[in-house]
Write a structure and sequence with these properties.
By secondary structure, this protein is an alpha/beta fold. The chain has a single domain, classed as Rossmann fold (3-Layer(aba) Sandwich), CATH 3.40.50. A five-stranded parallel beta sheet has the order 2-1-3-4-5, sandwiched between helices. It is globular, with a radius of gyration of 14 Å. The structure holds 1,3,4-trihydroxy-5-OXO-cyclohexanecarboxylic acid.
Protein backbone atom coordinates (compact mmCIF):
# COMPACT_ATOMS: atom_id res chain seq x y z
CA UNK A 1 0.00 0.00 0.00
CA UNK A 2 1.31 3.45 -0.90
CA UNK A 3 1.78 5.90 1.95
CA UNK A 4 1.42 9.67 1.70
CA UNK A 5 2.29 12.38 4.18
CA UNK A 6 -0.12 15.32 4.13
CA UNK A 7 1.33 18.45 5.67
CA UNK A 8 -0.63 21.58 6.59
CA UNK A 9 0.99 24.85 7.57
CA UNK A 10 0.10 27.74 9.90
CA UNK A 11 -3.48 28.80 10.64
CA UNK A 12 -5.02 25.87 8.78
CA UNK A 13 -6.07 24.55 12.21
CA UNK A 14 -8.49 27.51 12.23
CA UNK A 15 -10.32 26.42 9.07
CA UNK A 16 -14.04 27.12 9.31
CA UNK A 17 -13.51 30.11 11.61
CA UNK A 18 -10.80 31.78 9.57
CA UNK A 19 -11.92 34.08 6.74
CA UNK A 20 -14.72 31.70 5.67
CA UNK A 21 -15.42 33.85 2.60
CA UNK A 22 -11.96 32.79 1.34
CA UNK A 23 -11.39 29.36 2.88
CA UNK A 24 -14.97 28.07 3.30
CA UNK A 25 -16.92 26.87 6.32
CA UNK A 26 -15.44 23.36 6.66
CA UNK A 27 -13.31 22.93 9.77
CA UNK A 28 -9.86 21.33 10.04
CA UNK A 29 -11.57 18.23 11.50
CA UNK A 30 -13.78 18.12 8.36
CA UNK A 31 -10.65 18.37 6.21
CA UNK A 32 -8.98 15.47 8.05
CA UNK A 33 -12.18 13.41 7.62
CA UNK A 34 -12.35 14.20 3.89
CA UNK A 35 -8.68 13.29 3.30
CA UNK A 36 -8.92 10.10 5.37
CA UNK A 37 -12.05 8.96 3.50
CA UNK A 38 -10.54 9.64 0.09
CA UNK A 39 -7.29 7.89 1.02
CA UNK A 40 -9.27 4.88 2.21
CA UNK A 41 -11.21 4.77 -1.08
CA UNK A 42 -7.98 5.02 -3.07
CA UNK A 43 -6.27 2.46 -0.79
CA UNK A 44 -3.58 4.87 0.33
CA UNK A 45 -2.24 4.96 3.85
CA UNK A 46 -1.96 8.57 5.01
CA UNK A 47 -0.35 10.52 7.81
CA UNK A 48 -1.89 13.96 8.22
CA UNK A 49 -0.22 16.72 10.23
CA UNK A 50 -0.61 20.45 10.87
CA UNK A 51 1.85 22.84 12.44
CA UNK A 52 2.12 26.55 12.94
CA UNK A 53 5.92 26.22 13.11
CA UNK A 54 8.23 26.24 10.12
CA UNK A 55 10.85 24.03 11.83
CA UNK A 56 8.25 21.37 12.68
CA UNK A 57 7.28 21.26 9.01
CA UNK A 58 10.94 20.90 7.99
CA UNK A 59 11.30 18.07 10.57
CA UNK A 60 8.20 16.32 9.18
CA UNK A 61 9.55 16.52 5.60
CA UNK A 62 12.94 15.21 6.72
CA UNK A 63 11.28 12.21 8.39
CA UNK A 64 9.01 11.44 5.42
CA UNK A 65 11.29 9.04 3.50
CA UNK A 66 11.32 6.67 6.51
CA UNK A 67 7.72 5.77 5.97
CA UNK A 68 6.13 7.34 2.94
CA UNK A 69 6.18 7.42 -0.85
CA UNK A 70 5.05 10.99 -1.50
CA UNK A 71 4.13 14.32 0.07
CA UNK A 72 1.10 16.59 -0.26
CA UNK A 73 1.74 19.99 1.26
CA UNK A 74 -0.23 23.14 1.91
CA UNK A 75 2.53 25.30 3.40
CA UNK A 76 -0.04 28.12 3.97
CA UNK A 77 1.74 31.46 4.60
CA UNK A 78 5.17 29.73 4.50
CA UNK A 79 4.48 29.14 0.81
CA UNK A 80 5.48 32.69 0.13
CA UNK A 81 8.54 32.90 2.39
CA UNK A 82 10.11 29.53 3.12
CA UNK A 83 13.32 28.60 1.37
CA UNK A 84 13.80 26.14 4.30
CA UNK A 85 10.71 24.14 3.24
CA UNK A 86 11.84 24.21 -0.40
CA UNK A 87 15.30 22.96 0.61
CA UNK A 88 13.82 20.18 2.80
CA UNK A 89 11.66 18.96 -0.09
CA UNK A 90 14.69 19.00 -2.40
CA UNK A 91 16.81 17.20 0.20
CA UNK A 92 14.42 14.26 0.60
CA UNK A 93 13.58 14.04 -3.09
CA UNK A 94 10.12 12.45 -2.71
CA UNK A 95 7.44 13.34 -5.29
CA UNK A 96 5.38 16.23 -3.92
CA UNK A 97 2.19 18.11 -4.78
CA UNK A 98 1.37 21.59 -3.46
CA UNK A 99 -2.24 22.43 -2.51
CA UNK A 100 -3.94 25.74 -1.81
CA UNK A 101 -7.58 26.00 -0.81
CA UNK A 102 -7.89 29.47 -2.36
CA UNK A 103 -6.66 30.55 -5.77
CA UNK A 104 -3.47 32.27 -4.66
CA UNK A 105 -2.82 33.68 -8.15
CA UNK A 106 -6.03 35.72 -7.97
CA UNK A 107 -5.12 37.25 -4.60
CA UNK A 108 -2.46 39.75 -3.42
CA UNK A 109 0.83 39.90 -5.37
CA UNK A 110 2.81 38.54 -2.42
CA UNK A 111 0.86 35.26 -2.72
CA UNK A 112 1.95 34.77 -6.33
CA UNK A 113 5.37 33.43 -5.39
CA UNK A 114 5.72 29.91 -4.00
CA UNK A 115 9.08 28.59 -2.84
CA UNK A 116 7.91 24.98 -2.16
CA UNK A 117 6.11 25.17 -5.51
CA UNK A 118 9.51 25.40 -7.22
CA UNK A 119 10.03 21.76 -6.23
CA UNK A 120 6.50 20.31 -6.39
CA UNK A 121 5.64 18.72 -9.74
CA UNK A 122 2.07 20.06 -9.54
CA UNK A 123 0.09 22.78 -7.74
CA UNK A 124 -3.65 22.46 -7.08
CA UNK A 125 -5.33 25.76 -6.18
CA UNK A 126 -8.77 27.29 -5.89
CA UNK A 127 -10.68 24.00 -5.51
CA UNK A 128 -11.47 24.49 -1.81
CA UNK A 129 -10.72 21.55 0.50
CA UNK A 130 -11.69 19.20 -2.35
CA UNK A 131 -8.31 20.15 -3.84
CA UNK A 132 -6.64 17.76 -1.37
CA UNK A 133 -8.51 14.85 -3.03
CA UNK A 134 -7.34 16.07 -6.45
CA UNK A 135 -3.78 16.22 -5.08
CA UNK A 136 -4.03 12.62 -3.82
CA UNK A 137 -5.24 11.47 -7.26
CA UNK A 138 -2.50 13.42 -9.07
CA UNK A 139 0.21 12.02 -6.78
CA UNK A 140 -1.11 8.47 -7.19
CA UNK A 141 -1.17 8.84 -10.98
CA UNK A 142 2.38 10.23 -10.94
CA UNK A 143 3.73 7.35 -8.84
CA UNK A 144 1.92 4.73 -10.95
CA UNK A 145 3.41 6.25 -14.11
CA UNK A 146 6.93 6.05 -12.61
CA UNK A 147 6.60 2.40 -11.54
CA UNK A 148 7.32 -0.14 -14.27
CA UNK A 149 4.38 -2.50 -14.82
CA UNK A 150 5.23 -6.19 -14.79
C1 LIG B 1 -3.35 29.09 1.53
C2 LIG B 1 -3.00 30.39 0.79
C3 LIG B 1 -1.91 31.15 1.51
O1 LIG B 1 -1.59 32.34 0.81
C4 LIG B 1 -2.35 31.53 2.90
O2 LIG B 1 -1.30 32.18 3.60
C5 LIG B 1 -2.88 30.37 3.67
C6 LIG B 1 -3.70 29.36 2.99
C7 LIG B 1 -4.54 28.36 0.89
O3 LIG B 1 -4.72 27.18 1.20
O4 LIG B 1 -5.29 28.94 0.11
O5 LIG B 1 -2.73 30.31 4.88
O6 LIG B 1 -2.23 28.24 1.47
Amino acid sequence: MLRFMIINGPNLNLLGRREPEIYGSATYADLVKLISKHCQEMQVDCKIMQSNHEGAIVDAIQSAPDYCDGIIINPAAYTHTSVAILDALRAVGLPAVEVHISDVDKREDFRHISYPGMYCFKTIKGEGIQGYCTAIDVLLQHIWEQKPTI
